[in-house]
Amino acid sequence: MLGLHGTSPPSPSIHDIANFARSSSTAAILSYCYIGYRLRIRTAGFFSSCAVLLGILRSCDAVISGSFALHMVLPANSCAWTPSDIDIYVPLRQMCYLSMKLECEGYNIIHERRVEASPYNMTAIRSILTFSNGTHHIDVIVSRTSTAISPLFQFHSTAVMNFISTDSIFCTYPNLTFHRRALINSLPVYNGSIGFKTMAALQKYASRGFNFGTCEDIHHMPYTCRSIPRTLTDGGCLWLQITDLRHDVVRTTEVFKCLGVINVMWLLGGYVCGAYPAFLDGYSFVFENEMDRLSDRHFIGSEEV
User: Fold this and answer.
1) Is the dihedral of CA 115, 193, 236, 41 positive or negative?
2) pTM of the full predicted structure?
3) Which of 32, 100, 172, 274 has the greatest CB tally within 10 Å of its CB?
4) Cβ-contact 172, 163 below 8 angstroms
5) For residues 191 and 12, which has the higher predicted lDDT (pLDDT)?
């Protein structure tokens, strides 16, 4: 079904793969092989093997996001573009170790930028480091919180709120993403802080076939309203566990095993549906591994890197 041995490249989305994998044990094995194939193709040139990259992600509590993750989520044949670099997100406590691991693979830091938070820009990004091996580039985005994924909920749009960990592929808004639809992070537009990089990123994804609409346009799709809080375990996310493709229920145990936190809750924010010009600030909360502790509040509004 996946056409692993055919002459034409297969083109299932991650959602298609998940459904196919649950049909039988053989289908699960084929799906596992196909995902591994796509990862190997995308990581060629960056690392000596895909296993090296996945090992780095595991040892550093890191994830991959950006165009690379989106390319893995979408059907291969539907993408006329290929990611030119890899964006790795890592918690602050693992930044030095990740840098050392990349240097061992032949990479050197060629640029570093500190991202300053302010009352008008409560960014979850602490710094951005660009590594190069002479032919390929890797951007390392350092999170201010205890989990690597906090910056994901501050991206320019829902189109790039996806990530890949050592053993999972995650899509925050599958109902939108698989239909090439997206909601824009409207806080920078609202407060006038939208920058050139954000505009360029939005234009880039529009050229890749994404349609940016209003909340009212997509209310018929569940888990998409920007005025309703979301969590990783609310049932609206697609979390494909590569090592157990027949299991599709996201539980707190999986979140903790993958990310080291209990859960993440966020609100996309923006103009409140049917109540224009009422505007709601976005936010994200990280539930740490401490009893009933709620910490690390960050307002949505940073630019994609």
Assistant:
1) negative
2) 0.86
3) 172
4) no
5) 12
